[in-house]
Amino acid sequence: MNRIKQFRRNKKMSQSDIAKIIKVKQNTISQWEREIRMPNVRQALKLAEILETTVEDLYK
Length: 60
Fold this sequence. Notes:
By secondary structure, the protein is mostly helical. It is built from 5 helices and no strands. It starts with a helix and ends with a helix.
């Protein structure tokens, strides 16, 4: 289980906000949150940076 959605909401960011920064489609963020797809290492690191956490904390 991942905590992407929880961290994103805590930062008051939308899926679109994150998608623009990482340069992916909003649907991709949705799929990451629902665990349909996983970000690659570079994307996961960027996501953790944006959400001010670690990759490990995102996937506890």
